[in-house]
Amino acid sequence: MSFLLLLLPQPSTATRLSPFTISTSTISLKPLSTLSPPRSIPNSTLSISTSPPPTPTNAPPPKKVLLPIGFGTEEMEAVILIHVLRRAGAHVTVASVEPQLQVEAASGTKLVADASISECSDQIFDLIALPGGMPGSARLRDCDALRIITCKQAEENRLFGAINAAPAVTLLPWGLLKRKKITCHPAFFHKLPTFWAVKSNIQVSNGLTTSRGPGTAYMFALTLVEQLFGESIAREVAEFLLMRTDDDNVSKKEFNEIDWSVGHHPPSVLIPIAHGSEEIEVVTLIDILRRAKANVVVASVEKTLGVMASQGTKIVADKLISDIQESAHDLIILPGGTAGAERLSKSRILKKLLKEQNSAGRIYGAVCSSPAILHKQGLLKDKKATAHPSALNKLKDGAVNDAVVVIDGKVITSEGLATVTDFALAIVSKLFGNGRARSVAEGLVFEYPRK
């Protein structure tokens, strides 16, 4: 695992029916590839299949992973685990420990599980990975079905892991930390057995892997990938995610620096999403900006509130884009994902909102493949910007290839994927000041840049 050591970084019950239903056509998740959403959605519903493509008869069966979620689960941790493990080729079942599949996470993101935890009790998993968050970790702890499944996993010497509050709040009461070195979020570290507690970002001990928080979630996920699939696959996924090492010259560059003051009210941020949007970008933006006390509105450009992101994560938006077409926002941020960006670019309402944003001199930005949308609409004229390496050439003369985040006046762009944490914290710093950004980063257990 030597390469991993180089890598840096309240809830309400949703009562309405899930916007996701099963129909005759399906989308299959393809590891290490981009999801292509359906051209049409029969009866305004999204067809879902979370099974990977059929494997050849002589190929080993896919690795099966159980990822439970509950009200108050930390959404960044859950979604990073889902995304990274599926991209590596694992068959990940997201299971709700609540009576319903739709769950509101710690910062208000609405996620939809694949199954109820009761449907998983007779299955054998290669890995059980517990996201943290509060009260999410307590909800997992109080679920008898999950406790039985996880205790059996440990007894039979199969892999299991937990992050953030989950090692102390969930696994400790279940008696699963005995004679194992463990770590967890600094706020819960005092609950761990003193002799076995380790202040490290990642700790692997006798089949149990633990980690500290959202800021270490990529490292946590990649450590699990390495244990399931080997170092080469973990390296491949890390490179795809644009993970950085201590030797990388990670930088934020700012041109034409101006103040982003929006008055005394909490900044209003619009995040439009579509089928195929990159879930780790969507959820990281929502989580970090809401932690900073911005008023974040997630709007679907589809006909339904529910969208299926690039690696099959099911996210429910707050509103349809048509419901907010007359609204003004201090900031509009476009998440990436090749298929998602294409669908965002076709939204006439979003085009109108972006044009008005530019005309009014308000702030806007994009990550990953979506800066190309801004360029196509003429919104990057005479601006410096960056994008995912595969889309950087579309930005023409304004492209910046040696920074993970680029700010030019009131326009902000980023490479995307794993760099979206830096991107979101850069937005927090511009809107609220460096002190607020550093405070949020500390809560994430994310190493905030000194400069």
TrEMBL record:
InterPro entries to which the protein is assigned, alphabetical: Class_I_gatase-like, DJ-1, DJ-1/PfpI, Prot/Nucl_acid_deglycase
Pfam families: DJ-1_PfpI (PF01965)
Annotated transmembrane regions: none
GO biological process, one term: chloroplast organization
Top-rank taxon, per record: Eukaryota
NCBIfam families the record matches: not_thiJ (TIGR01383)
Family listed: Belongs to the peptidase C56 family.
Sequence segments annotated as region (Disordered): 33-62
Record protein name field: Class I glutamine amidotransferase superfamily protein
